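Worked example

This section walks through a single chain of length 125. The input is the sequence exactly as stored; nothing has been trimmed or padded.
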Amino acid sequence: QVQLVESGGGSVQTGESLRLSCVVSGYRPSGYCVGWLRQAATKERAGVAALGRDGRTTYADSVKGRFTISRDTAKNMAYLQMDSLKVEETAVYYCALRRCVGSGSPLWPGRYEHWGQGTQVTVSS
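Given that input, the structure is written out below as tokens.
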């Protein structure tokens, strides 16, 4: 059974940075790609950043130029570097796996089949 565990969340002020980490353990299904999604209070879960099998990245428009998704395949780790954080980005951030090949945007939560428990990010002014 595949497991994803996020870490690195916390409380920061506007403009500061955080780096989230995700470790994938257990059975790692082949043909799956990683993404980061978030859910703020009273809002639907939304994709933030995603990696394709060829390393191609996809970002939500609101985070382009500030967030960077990366992976260390040898360590089964994925990361989300978040710079210049904004108050409205306060949310629970999830690491998740989707099939690399599929229809729909790689940021669409409906494509993701395996999820971590999430890590809270709080940005205050």
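What to look for: The chain is about 0% helix and 50% strand.
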